[in-house]
Amino acid sequence: MEQEISLWKGSPSQWLNLANYLTALLITTGISMVSLLTLNPMFLIALVTPLFFMIWKFLVIRCYTFELTTERLRITRGVVNQHIDEIELYRVKDSVLFRSWWMRLTGLSSIALETSDGSLNKIVLPAIRHGFTMREALRKQVEIQRDKKRVREVDYEDALSIHPATTTTSSSILFP
Question: Is 174 or 101 the better-scoring residue by pLDDT?
């Protein structure tokens, strides 16, 4: 039996927190201005709240990791309590890479995966670096795992349906 090898590890970019950081900065500026205008240093104690908010948002993104191995994609998230999801690569049906304007400016991309897994139908790997390389590595590993496990994706239409285009379903079939 082959040993599972890690091919890629990554996490979303902190650029996802830009709006949160700007909001906290705006609140911090407001609290500072009120403290200066009222000459009441007690308002400065309230500066702790936006600071903790920014630290928490940083940790949430920092503790959200992805690992692509030769057999599965592992998604780990959680600062205090960890939640680990794993999807077997042969269950990945489709992948879409998308880049909004700000992602293009920062060199990031997101990958959306459609799977045949019942608990993880859609997975998004948001704001990752080297998205094109990651998507290609993922695609190659999916094909390798499908060949290894002799699994093929089959789409079929419901014969009893009036509108066959709206009832197309698919499933993974394991060939003996």
Answer: 101
What contacts 171, CB < 8 A, 6 or more positions away? 116, 153, 154
Q: What's the angle, vertex CA 58, arms to CA 41 and CA 132, rounded to 5?
A: 150
Q: Which of 2, 176, 172, 1 is nearest to 87 (CA)?
A: 172
Task: Report the alpha-carbon distance of residue 168 to residue 160 in Å, rounded.
Answer: 12
Cα–Cα distance, 114 to 120 (Å, whole number)? 8
Residue keyed to tokens 């191995």: 69
Contacts of 41 by beta carbon, 8 Å cutoff, 6+ apart: 35
142 confidence band (pLDDT: 50, 70, 90): very high
The CA distance from 166 to 74, in Å, is 32
Does the predicted model carry a pTM greater than 0.70?
A: yes
Q: At residue 49, what is the residue type?
A: T
Q: Please choose, from the candidates 68, 51, 54, 73, the residue with its C-alpha nearest in 3D space to the C-alpha of residue 14.
A: 54
